[in-house]
Amino acid sequence: MALVRYAAQNSSSSNTTSPCRYHVFLSFRGKDTRKTFSDHLYTALVNARFRTFRDDDELERGEGINPGIERAIRQSRSSVIVFSKDFAFSKWCLDELVMILERKRVSSDHIVLPVFYDVDPSQVRKQTGSFAKALAKYQKTKSKNKVKEWREALNQVADLAGMVLQNQAYGYVIFPRLLVCIIGRLVNRSGLDLDLLRPDLWFLNGFRSKL
After folding, report:
1. pTM score, two decimals?
2. Catalytic pick from 58, 60, 96, 152?
3. Which end of the chain is more exposed for a tag (fewer CB within 10 A), N or C?
């Protein structure tokens, strides 16, 4: 398990006030992690009394994203995005990612924390491996602008601070608890202090610098 060090999350936009119904919006690909890591993380968040939104609808959705998802993103104080191997094969996950980054753009105090579960941040940033395969597939069925939008979002989110789960033996127990501690310290502050995630403050099975 490792922590990717921070790249400053600057925003030129002014803060936009909106009612926050949830502490955390949890984004993940259900087929990959719903019954494993994401479920453990959700349970840890709820046990810590974080109001956490996750999409429990495993049925195929229509072409557009569920309006309830978009509303939940707008009403969340933070977003945790679990990037798994086949994350990019879900166009709904990619659309959620775009919406989350747009939420952060218009409201600079919105916290976005990517979690790289069994994938390397460089795969997300450079769209290699399974991410390259997924986007190549979409190039045949989606507009160039849509694919470009997804690529830019993946590149942007990989440059934010994130946490890398490398050792799954620790992941289901320790990692969700550590993440809950980090989210708790971030959402309870009036501003986002990037030093909260310094390696000297959080140590677990080694650290890794941002690639």
Report:
1. 0.78
2. 96
3. C
